Amino acid sequence: MKRTKSFDNTHPVLYLISTPIGNLSEFNSRALDIVSQMDIIAAEDTRNSGQLINHFGMKKEMFSLREHNEKEASERLIKLIKEGKKVAYMSDAGYPGISDPGYLLVKAAIENDIAVSVINGASAFISALVASGLPTDHFYFYGFLPAKENEAKTILVEMKNRQETIIFYEAPHRIEKTIHLLQEVFGNREVVIARELTKINEEYIRGHLDELINIDFSTLKGEMVVILQGNDKEQEIDEKQIEERLKFFLDKGLSKKDAIEIVSEEYKINKNLIYKLAVSQKS
Ligand code: SAM
Q1: Nearest to 53 by CA among 90, 95, 16, 81
Q2: Ligand 1 environment, Cβ below 6 A
Q3: Does position 37 have pLDDT exceeding 70, yes or no?
Q4: 276 or 116, higher pLDDT
Q5: HSE-up of 240 (CA within 13 Å, CB side)?
Q6: How far is Cα 206 from Cα 272, in angstroms, rounded to an integer?
Q7: Res 41 pLDDT > 60
Q8: How many CB atoms within 10 Å of residue 31?
């Protein structure tokens, strides 16, 4: 067991700073205060973060820590912190470690008895989730799906029974493929695309996957988060009920066609769907 206090000066501290996801005014006064106290600002993109702090009238020694050098750069940073340098890490947008580098650095800090303290700010998926209108009590953040379609599909199929709201990050050049894949795997679930959050073109597109596959995808530019409805338990119970009802009529000697007709009428559900259930029941 390890206990570290962030404010009592018994341990050196690594600061993780959340940066704006599009609107510079979301870089808050605490973040500015911490940056001003640091000797070194480590960043995913030193030019980008250098410009950010420059915008607020500060200039700092920058240190590059990217996905491709995260392990070695983390070790070097830990050494610098142990030598007494004050260090903060920031990624390009939002929180370090969320679909961004940071995890290995935090792990190395903890292993070296360095306290880790977070300066809060924007996170794309939290903003998208809370405004989505989909349940927020339980959620599953996945982040970016793999680029290869068959790998993405395997992952999505494994998610099919998740009841929590599901969150993906996506890029504009892949959104069309992803929405089609979601519709193929999940059917006609509710979906929300939260686009260009905190920027002038901020937009929420709320609908069902059957509608979304027909959207003009050229209008979906910029950065976006995709929020998908979880597996609705009531639907599962209905399916069971329908299967039992079908069995009831079939056991009574009705033809499959007649049983499907009656159940479709009773539950006001499309005959094709009932037909599929009847087939799966048989197998
Ligand atoms: N670390 C970031 C965070 O805490 O949200 C995420 C970085 S990840 C490399 C970038 C992805 O975050 C984008 O492709 C997009 O899915 C999402 N994102 C970032 N900024 C966004 C914005 N302003 N609006 C919508 N999505 C955004």
Answers
A1: 90
A2: 21-22, 91, 93-95, 98-100, 123-125, 169-171, 194-199, 223-225
A3: yes
A4: 116
A5: 5
A6: 27
A7: yes
A8: 23
Q: Which residues lie below 8 Å from residue 137, measured CB to CB, with a gap of 6+?
A: none
Q: SS3 for 277?
A: helix
Percent of the chain with pLDDT over 70: 96
Helix ranges, the chain (H): 29-37, 46-55, 70-82, 103-111, 124-132, 149-159, 175-186, 209-212, 233-251, 256-267, 271-282
Q: Which amino acid is at 154?
A: T
Residues recorded for the chain: 283
Give the mutation target among 192, 205, 220, 224 for probing the ligand 1 site: most ligand atoms within 8 A of CB: 224
Q: Is the model's pTM score more than 0.85? A: no
Residue 7, CB-side half-sphere exposure with 13 Å CA sphere: 2
Task: Tell me how far the alpha carbon of residue 271 lies from the centroid of ligand 1, in angstroms.
Answer: 42
